[in-house]
């Protein structure tokens, strides 16, 4: 995607579930699919442990916002260095979780997010999830006000509708499917953002996550929680969107599959 004359840009998101444990799988995916931008979640490493040199070897510039053992987000760009705009969300100065990273790259504003899971429900973790979603909404509104082509990519930890899960009853008590979670997600779309995967797969049945337990992968018991939201300026350039599902079935894989969108590149 770094080459001249490219007509589309592929923007991708991958919850890698531990960058050190999955580094071979991650490098394999990058070289096979070559996204222009890759937003990573759950890197689970402190800043000093991030393997930037490994990405440089295959032509990717990187920025990252790490946290030892938990959370953590990063952004990779093919042949470019993302220019960081913001890390973290305003509104709770005491919040030390590494979950948000925003940059300018390839003429776009791109944010990678790892939204809180929120379980168990009810409880303080669910309350934190809902507050975080409201803080995200405020930041997305600020981005929208700039009228720049923008994409918000990542693990949103929200199953938007029943069509986005293999069996709604199986997840009914989970934070990912609570009415409050879904309403907060719906408000982002009502603000003018486009859910790219849903737009191109309106019947649903597209999964991005399969639990390690109970043979979920083998039985295709999955759900969609990894999303790509596009601003009006970028949604007009949407060409394709999908999930690199086969990467979930590889040895020592993450429990998520990468999601991606392709948009027309500006001349």
Automatic annotation (TrEMBL):
Keywords: Hydrolase, Magnesium, Manganese, Metal-binding. Residues 12-256 form the Endonuclease/exonuclease/phosphatase domain. GO terms for molecular function: double-stranded DNA 3'-5' DNA exonuclease activity; metal ion binding. Mg(2+) binds at residues 15, 42, 155, 157, 255-256. GO terms for biological process: DNA repair. SUPFAM superfamilies: DNase I-like. Gene3D superfamilies: Endonuclease/exonuclease/phosphatase. The record marks 256 as: Interaction with DNA substrate. It is an enzyme of class 3 (hydrolase). The active site is at 114, 155 (proton donor/acceptor), 256 (proton acceptor). The record marks 157 as: Transition state stabilizer. Its EC number is 3.1.11.2. Its cofactor is Mg(2+); Mn(2+). CDD domains: ExoIII-like_AP-endo. The record marks 226 as: Important for catalytic activity. Belongs to the DNA repair enzymes AP/ExoA family. This is Exodeoxyribonuclease III. It comes from Novosphingobium piscinae.
């Amino acid at each position: 995607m770094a080459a001249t004359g490219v007509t589309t840009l592929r923007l991708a998101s991958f919850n890698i579930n531990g960058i050190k444990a999955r580094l071979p799988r991650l490098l394999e995916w990058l070289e096979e699919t070559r996204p222009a931008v890759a937003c990573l979640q759950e890197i689970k490493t402190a800043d000093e442990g991030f393997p930037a040199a490994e990405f440089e070897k295959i032509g990717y510039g990187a920025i990252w916002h790490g946290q030892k053992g938990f959370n953590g987000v990063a952004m990779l760009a093919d042949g470019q260095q993302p220019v960081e705009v913001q890390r973290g969300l305003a509104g709770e100065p005491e919040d030390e979780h590494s979950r948000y990273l925003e940059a300018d790259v390839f003429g776009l504003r791109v944010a990678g997010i790892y939204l809180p899971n929120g379980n168990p429900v009810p409880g303080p973790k669910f309350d934190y999830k809902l507050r975080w979603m409201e803080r995200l909404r405020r930041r997305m509104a600020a981005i929208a006000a700039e009228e720049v082509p923008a994409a918000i990519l990542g693990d949103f930890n929200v199953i938007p509708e029943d069509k986005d899960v293999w069996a709604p009853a199986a997840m009914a008590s989970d934070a990912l499917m609570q009415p409050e979670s879904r309403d907060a997600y719906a408000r982002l779309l009502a603000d003018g953002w486009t859910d790219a995967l849903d737009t191109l797969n309106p019947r649903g049945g597209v999964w991005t996550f399969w639990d390690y337990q109970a043979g979920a992968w083998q039985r295709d018991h999955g759900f969609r929680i990894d999303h790509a939201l596009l601003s009006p300026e970028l949604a007009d350039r949407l060409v394709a969107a999908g999930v690199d599902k086969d990467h979930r079935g590889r040895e020592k894989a993450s429990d998520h599959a990468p999601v991606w969108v392709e948009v027309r590149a500006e001349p």
